[in-house]
Amino acid sequence: MINFDVSGALLVGLMGAGHCFGMCGGLVAAFSSQTTTVKIGENLLLKQIWLQLSYNFGRIVSYSLAGAIVGGSAASLGSFFEIDNYLIGLRIFAGLMMIITGLYVSQIWFGLTKIEIIGKFLWKFIQPFATKLLPIQTRPKAIIAGLVWGWLPCGLVYSMLTWAVASGSALDGATIMAAFGLGTLPSLLAAGAAAKTVSSWLQQRAIKVVSGVSIILFGIHTLFIAVQQLS
């Protein structure tokens, strides 16, 4: 089942590009505008690309860490329950969260924003440190920024974490979240290169609906697997 979860997480990251662009695109695009100082013989465009890659590396590492934490925690808690029923219950929850996420991405229903409120409470303790990292001019600083901003309140990330929980292990949880992070990478790299053009394309209603429906289908498939396991 983990193979499906990993490929699904990768595709959800791709399909959720519009939401990812809205959450993190501004920060990534800022790298291009803020990076104006270069050494003699240094290529400005190349420096901007390296900063973006470094930031996204840190962001994906933070996702993987979160996946390992929740996946490992679920495995530990599973020792107190009947493991099969426990994992099936988690998979049902993950499927429902994916459907809610799809409705959110397609702008049909915004219930997922209520979950982000919890993250916003935690984020207010992290934000002061995050803002001190700006402007970002070096690769190490960009990696640290990615590690920090990876904890930015995001309903899509929280939804994928339910998949990591349902995986039942720290390694599988980390792998799922890493795959999701890689899926979001193209849109955020494009954000730095052509923010205005990418933003206009991703904000089209048709793109959001297709992306949202795709995520809903993944949620339905996840529920179907869980129901099959119950029988």
From TrEMBL:
Coiled coil: none annotated. Residues 9-220 form the Urease accessory protein UreH-like transmembrane domain. Keywords: Membrane, Transmembrane, Transmembrane helix. The chain crosses the membrane at residues 6-31, 60-81, 87-112, 142-161, 173-194, 206-227. InterPro entries: UreH-like_TM_dom. Pfam families: DsbD_2. This is Sulfite exporter TauE/SafE family protein. It comes from Parashewanella spongiae.
